[in-house]
Amino acid sequence: MSVVSASWQVPRFVAGVSDQELDIIRGLFVTLAEKYPRNVVRSMYFDGKMPLKPTGNIPQEAMQRIQAVSDWPEKAVSALAERSVFEGFVTPGGLQDPFELGGILDANRFDLELPQAITSAYKHSCSFITTARGDVQAGEPEVVVMARSAEWSTAMWDKRRRTVSAALTLKDWDSSGQPSSMDVFLPDVVLSMTKRPSGSWVTERRPNALGEVLVEPLAYDPQIDRPFGRSRISRPVMNITDHALSTIVRTEISADFYAAPRMMALGVTKDAFASGKWEAAIDRWFAITKDEDGDVPTVQQFAQMTMQPLTDLYRMYATQFSGATGVPVANLGIVTDNPPSAEALFADDRRLVNTAKRQNRIMASSLRRVAQKIVRLRDGSGLTPELQQLDASWANPAFTSPTAAADALQKLSLVFPWLSESEVALEFAGFSQTEITRLLSDKRRSQTTNALSALSQLGKTTGAQTGDNQG
User: Fold this and answer.
1) pLDDT exceeding 90 applies to what percent of the chain?
2) Quick check: 120 and 149 in contact, CB under 8 A?
3) Which of 54, 86, 183, 320 is the most exposed place for a label (fewest CB within 10 A)?
4) Cα-based distances in Å from 91 to 88, 94, 385, 391
């Protein structure tokens, strides 16, 4: 996506749109234009393209010459996003593919689309997933599921219903950086708006039979006063990153002085440094003559400066960043002389794991509604009790060694013998959903083979007994 101007022109008149709908569109448009600059800033920090902030102590020339980059803001996002691994939809009955969602999700590349939506949500505070009837004749899936970034999408929140009441997403821009195409999602209709070369807007209206907005937000840490959450790249994260970058610049400057220690020469002639002070500092041999009075010059070296304070300062900022995000310090490139124990690593990782578990529960609510809308759009049905029981399954965000998982599972099976026959036991052991499906398929195949063998053996035994009786 190209970076466009935040001074967008609010549509004044749109053909095919009522006055009430136009008021909603204008409100959404203004909100998106207001949020856009800040979202661009967060994207710059995520991509490592943030400019160095002047400190007043470092010369501007040095700030421009030294290329200091930090990936800490990206770590704040990816460290958590990597622990939000969606494995599929499940029901209390334990069906492998409830409501036959696998085909539609695969056609929409949902395994690729959802991780991008999660990363975008942690970057900008939220992202959106839209659903719509697809044009099968044109090669689209029966239901189109798309992830939308908050950088070019916005929505209104209905506090009483706890749902999105209206949403807008930009699709294209003209040569001047003004939006030229957008979709507006309302409870009873989806408006596809396009701007003509003359500047006027035209609309294609597509009825929405579900009677609710076909948009679901994926939010990070939603609050009562902030239903669309907040960004992982928060103000403290950006401030700490700025200080860390300044420390990197100071370290680069100090490294040059560290490589060439400062010298002092007393009683030398004017031509002692005719070749230049830098050459005198780096030459292997350095010779100076006596002064005019015949006195031998005195050469001294200032005490060598140490870079340890700068290293300690950088480590302090890494500790602050870890405290603000929950990302372990070791993930920020800080190496300790004494490697931590397994228990220390587990404790250091615990906060991020707890955050991931909480986030997975929050996003599961939105994904469950996405799946319900897919089924209802595809089948033209209502919200059935069976569909309401649909839920999202996530991989365990905490790393557990296979040995520890097997030992715990064995102990639990002694207390709950029926646990070993449950799919939950396979999930607890660390198997992915794909592996669980293959294992259960192999189990059923083995059971069928054993049953056929038993029937064959029973038939042989019965035949032999019948022959003996006839004889």
Assistant:
1) 44
2) yes
3) 54
4) 10, 5, 11, 6
Q: How far apart are CA 358 and CA 130, in angstroms?
A: 23
Cβ-proximal residues to 260 (8 Å cutoff; 6+ apart), any chain: 278, 281, 282
Q: Please say whether the beta carbons of 29 and 40 come within 8 A.
A: no
**Residue-wise pLDDT tens digits, 428-437:** 666 666 666 6
Instruction: Of 97-106, 127-136, 292-301, 381-390, give the lowest mean pLDDT range.
Output: 292-301
- CA 44 – CA 236 distance, rounded (Å): 16
Structure-token match 């409100």, residue found: 27
10 Å CB burial of residue 100 (0-12, 13-18, 19+) is exposed
User: Which pTM does this prediction carry?
Assistant: 0.80
Helix, strand and coil content of the chain, in percent to the nearest 5, comes to 50, 15, 35
Residue count of the chain, please give it. Answer: 471
Q: Is the pLDDT of residue 451 over 90?
A: no
The residue assigned the tokens 């599972």 is: 409
Distance from first CA to last CA of the chain, Å, rounded?
A: 88
Q: How far apart are CA 395 and CA 386, in angstroms?
A: 24
- Of the two residues 309 and 239, the one the predictor is more confident about is 239
User: What are phi and psi for residue 238, nearest 5 degrees?
Assistant: -65, -40
Give the separation between CA 142 and CA 131, rounded to whole angstroms: 10
Question: How many Cβ atoms are within 10 Å of 309's Cβ, its own excluded?
Answer: 11
The two tokens of residue 449 are: 């083979």
Q: What is the pLDDT of residues 217-243, one digit of tens each?
A: 999 999 999 999 999 999 999 999 999
3-class state of residue 203 by DSSP: strand
Q: Are 364 and 121 in contact (CB under 8 A)?
A: no
Tell me the β-bridge partners of 89. Answer: 392
Question: By the 8 A CB rule, do 4 and 173 touch?
Answer: yes
With H, G, I as helix, E, B as strand and everything else as coil, classify residue 261. Answer: coil
What radius of gyration, in Å, describes the C-alpha atoms of the chain? 33
Residue 342, burial from CB neighbour count under 10 angstroms (0-12, 13-18, 19+) = exposed
Phi and psi at 163, nearest 5°, equal -140, 170
